[in-house]
Design goal:
31 strands; 6-stranded mixed beta sheet; Rossmann fold; Immunoglobulin-like
Length: 715
C-alpha cells in the first residue's frame, strides 16, 4: 500500500493541480458575435475543427494538472509497503539510549555508554536513505532527544554527543515514551513499529519491580522491540550504599552507621573507609571471601554550630576509588546539637498531676535524656516561636488559636513533629476539627467514651508498630500489658492516619500521619495522660512511648532531607537551593524546586531573605549504580516485554528483515519531469502555427483556414 512521509505536501500538490483548471475556466471568455458576409465559411471551418481542438485542450489541461500532482506526491516522499512500514512511511527507528547512572560503568570498548552508542550507530548505518530515526534518552526522567529524521548524519551526531547522567535509568518509561511518540504520529494500516534498546542491561539499568505486560493486541501493528545483548563483563566495585548518623549522647561523638556493598571481585581484601564532617576518621574493613555486604559504625566528632544557626551539618563517607567510581562516596545530614528542643504548649499547667506535667517528666526524666523542654503559651503560638523547635507537644489543643494551628501546620511541613493529647478536664472536644490541618483526617468522636466498671481495656503489645516502636519491641510485652485505659476518644473511621498502638478491644490508642515528602509527623494520643483516664503516666511505658514517638518522627524528618539525583526536592519555607558547584535552583511558594536535582553533594537552602535554613543531602541511587551483569532471561523478565536480543554484527541485517516501504518519490519526480517534457511538445504540436500548416491542405482557402484556426483557439 502507499503511505506518505509528509502528507501535507501531497495535499498541497493536489490543490496546486486545480490551478491550471482555474486558469482554463477563467480564460474562456465569451465574445459577442458580429455578423458579416464570410461568417458562414468561418463557421464551417470551426465546426470541422471543434472536436479536435477540444480534445487537444483537455489533453494539455490533464497533462499540466498531472505534472503538479506528481510533483506534490514526490515532495511528500511516498513509500510503497508490501508488509511493514515503521512510523508511517519507511522505517522509523526509535533508539532508546541508556545514558543513566550505570552507563558510566566499564564496558567492552570503553564505558557501557560507548558500547550502547556503537550498537545504535550500527542500526542507523543499516537504514535506507528514506528511513528515519529518533532518539529517546533513558535517564530519569526519559525524554525525546531527537524527533525522527531521515538525515542520518544528524542522528549519529546526537548519539555521539550523549553523555552519562547521574540519574537512574528508566528503561520501561523510555520505551513507553517512544511508543507514545509513535502513537502521536498516527498509525498506518499494515505498519510495524521498531524500538531499539541500546543498553548494557546491567542490574542497575533494570527496574526493581517488573512492569505490567502490555495488553495491546499483537499482530501486524505490534511494536517490535530489539535490544543489544546484556553485558557479560564483571565490574569490581564497592559502593557506599547508606549512611545513617545517630544522635550524640551527652555531647560525645556521633555514631555514623555505614553500609557497604560490593560486586564483581569477591575475594578477600581490605577497604579503607573515611568519614568527614569538619574532622575525619578512617576505618579499615576486611572482606572475607564471598562477602557482599558489610555494616560498620564509626564515631565522629561533629563541628559545633552557632546557637542561631541551623543545627545540622553535612557528613561525607567515602571508600577508595575503584572501577565504577560513581558510588564511592555518599553524604548525609547529622544533628550537631546535643539536645533536641521540644516545646510543651501549656505553660500554666506544668505542675505535678497535670497532663503537661506528666509529659514534661516523660520527655526529660534525667539531665542526660538529650531533650530540652521549652514551655510555650498555647494562645501565643506563631511561626517565629516554633521555627527553632524540633517537636511540639499539645496538652491543651483547645486553647490553640487559628493562627496557632496554621503555625503548627507550617512547622510540620518543615519536618517537625506534633504530639497531640486530649485535655483531661473536657468532656467534649471541638478542637478535633482542626486535626486535618496536621494531616489526620480520621473521624474522631467529640464525646469521651467511658469503659464499663472493671472492664477497662488494656494496651495490646502485639499492635505496636515496628516502625515506631522497633527499639523497644523486645520489652513491649512487659511495658504495655499492665496499662489500663478507662476513658478515651473513639474513632469512627480510619480514612487517614496510621494506628500505631491499639487496645485489647481493637480500638486505636495512638494514631500517626506522616508527610512522605517532608517527613513531618503528627501523632494523636486518644487518652489524656491523666490518672482519671488511664494509669499510663505511672507505668514504665510512659517514658519509652513518648521518646520513641519523637525519635521516629525526627528520624522521618531527617530521612526527608535526602534526595536522589533526578528527584525534584520539596523544601517548605525555602526560596532557593544552592548546589556544591554554586548552581542555583529556585523554589516556588509551595516549596517545590523548579527542576530535579542533578548534582550529588550537600545543597544549601536559603529563605527569602538569603538566610541559611539548612542543608539537603543529594546522592546517586545506589541500586541504579549496580553494574553486575544480568542474564538475558532475567533482563527480559525485568522489562516485562517480549524483546529480541541482536548483536551489533547482525543488528542491521535483522532490522532489514522488517520490510519497510520502497521509496517512490524518485520515480514520481522522474515521471513529473518526463510528463513536463511531453506537455511542452504537445503544446507546441497543438500551437497556432502547427494548425495553420495543417489547415493549408484543407478545402477552405489558406487565409480562411489560418484565420479560422486562430479564431477557434481563442474561442
Amino acid at each position: 500500500m502507499l503511505s506518505l512521509a509528509v502528507p501535507a505536501l501531497a495535499v498541497g500538490g493536489l490543490l496546486a493541480a486545480l490551478v491550471p483548471l482555474a486558469i482554463h475556466l477563467l480564460w474562456r471568455r465569451r465574445r459577442r458575435p458580429v455578423e458579416w458576409a464570410a461568417m458562414e465559411l468561418l463557421r464551417q471551418a470551426v465546426r470541422r475543427r471543434r472536436r479536435r481542438l477540444q480534445v487537444e485542450r483537455w489533453i494539455l489541461l490533464a497533462a499540466r494538472m498531472l505534472v503538479l500532482v506528481l510533483l506534490g506526491l514526490a515532495i511528500s516522499r511516498p513509500l510503497l509497503s508490501s508488509g511493514a512500514i515503521v512510523g508511517g512511511g519507511g522505517r522509523t527507528l526509535w533508539i532508546v539510549l541508556d545514558d543513566g547512572l550505570v552507563s558510566a560503568a566499564p564496558g567492552e570498548g570503553g564505558t557501557a555508554l560507548d558500547d550502547a552508542r556503537a550498537w545504535a550507530e550500527s542500526l542507523v548505518g543499516s537504514l535506507a536513505p528514506g528511513d528515519a530515526a529518533g532518539i529517546v534518552l533513558a535517564s530519569s526522567p526519559p525524554r525525546v532527544a531527537l524527533e525522527p529524521t531521515s538525515d542520518h548524519a544528524v542522528v549519529l551526531d546526537r548519539l555521539r554527543r550523549a553523555t552519562a547522567s547521574l540519574s537512574p535509568t528508566d528503561l520501561p518509561g523510555a520505551i513507553a515514551r517512544a511508543e507514545e511518540r509513535l502513537a502521536a504520529r498516527g498509525a498506518v494500516e499494515g505498519e510495524v513499529a521498531v524500538v531499539a534498546v541500546a543498553s548494557s542491561l546491567r542490574e542497575g539499568a533494570l527496574p526493581e519491580v517488573v512492569p505490567a505486560a502490555s495488553t495491546e493486541d499483537g499482530g501486524e501493528d505490534a511494536v517490535l522491540l530489539l535490544a543489544m545483548p546484556p553485558a557479560t563483563r564483571e565490574v569490581s566495585s564497592i559502593s557506599v550504599a547508606s549512611v545513617e548518623p545517630g544522635r550524640a549522647v551527652a555531647g560525645g561523638p556521633t555514631p555514623i552507621r555505614v553500609r557497604l556493598v560490593r560486586e564483581g571481585d569477591l575475594s578477600p581484601r581490605r577497604t579503607r573507609v573515611a568519614a568527614t564532617a569538619g574532622t575525619s576518621v578512617d576505618r579499615t574493613v576486611s572482606w572475607s571471601a564471598g562477602e557482599r555486604e558489610v555494616e560498620l559504625e564509626m564515631m565522629l566528632e561533629l563541628p559545633e554550630v552557632a546557637p542561631d544557626a541551623p543545627g545540622r551539618v553535612g557528613v561525607e563517607v567515602s571508600v577508595d576509588p575503584d572501577e565504577h567510581a560513581v558510588d564511592d562516596r555518599r553524604t548525609a545530614t547529622a544533628d550537631a546539637r546535643s539536645r533536641a528542643r521540644v516545646g510543651i504548649a501549656d505553660r500554666s499547667r506544668l505542675g505535678v498531676g497535670s497532663g503537661a506535667g506528666w509529659l514534661s517528666r516523660a520527655l526529660s526524666p534525667s539531665a542526660d535524656a538529650g531533650i530540652e523542654v521549652v514551655e510555650l503559651e498555647p494562645g501565643l503560638l506563631e511561626d517565629r516561636v516554633l521555627r527553632d523547635l524540633d517537636a511540639v507537644v499539645l496538652p491543651r489543643p483547645d486553647r490553640i488559636t487559628t493562627d496557632g494551628w496554621a503555625a503548627l501546620a507550617a512547622m510540620r511541613a518543615r519536618g517537625g513533629v506534633v504530639l497531640v493529647v486530649p485535655p483531661a478536664p473536657l468532656d467534649s472536644h471541638a478542637w478535633l476539627e482542626r486535626l486535618p490541618m496536621l494531616g489526620i483526617s480520621t473521624e474522631v468522636a467529640r464525646e469521651v467514651v467511658d469503659a464499663a466498671e472493671g472492664a477497662a481495656p488494656t494496651i495490646d503489645p502485639r499492635s505496636a508498630s515496628p516502625a515506631w516502636f522497633g527499639m523497644v519491641a523486645g520489652e513491649m510485652e512487659d511495658l504495655a500489658s499492665p496499662v489500663e485505659v478507662r476513658r478515651r476518644l473513639a474513632t469512627a473511621s480510619r480514612d487517614s492516619g496510621e494506628s500505631i498502638l491499639s487496645l485489647s478491644d481493637g480500638s486505636p490508642l495512638l494514631l500517626a500521619a506522616s508527610d512522605e515528602s517532608t517527613g513531618g509527623s503528627t501523632v494523636l494520643l486518644l487518652a489524656a495522660p491523666d490518672l482519671g483516664w488511664t494509669d499510663l503516666p505511672v507505668r514504665p511505658l510512659m517514658v519509652p512511648l513518648v521518646h520513641e514517638v519523637l525519635r521516629e518522627g525526627l528520624a522521618r524528618a531527617e530521612r526527608s532531607r535526602r534526595l536522589v539525583v533526578g528527584e525534584v526536592g520539596r523544601h517548605p519555607g525555602a526560596s532557593r537551593s544552592i548546589a556544591p558547584s554554586g548552581a542555583t535552583t529556585d523554589v516556588d511558594d509551595d516549596g517545590i524546586a523548579e527542576r530535579a536535582a542533578s548534582e550529588p553533594g550537600l545543597h544549601r537552602l536559603l529563605d527569602g531573605a538569603g538566610r541559611e535554613m539548612g542543608i539537603v543531602a543529594v546522592n546517586v541511587d545506589a541500586r541504579a549504580a549496580r553494574a553486575s551483569p544480568s542474564p538475558a532471561e532475567a533482563a527480559r523478565r525485568s522489562l516485562g516485554r517480549e524483546v529480541e536480543f541482536v548483536d551489533a554484527a547482525t543488528a542491521g541485517a535483522r532490522l532489514a528483515t522488517e520490510e519497510g516501504g520502497r521509496p517512490l518519490w524518485t520515480a514520481l519526480a522522474a515521471a513529473a519531469l518526463l510528463l513536463a517534457v511531453v506537455e511542452t511538445m504537445l503544446a507546441r504540436r497543438f500551437s497556432h502555427a502547427s494548425r495553420a500548416e495543417a489547415s493549408s491542405s484543407e478545402e477552405a482557402p489558406a487565409f480562411l483556414a489560418s484565420f479560422g484556426g486562430s479564431r477557434s483557439a481563442s474561442a
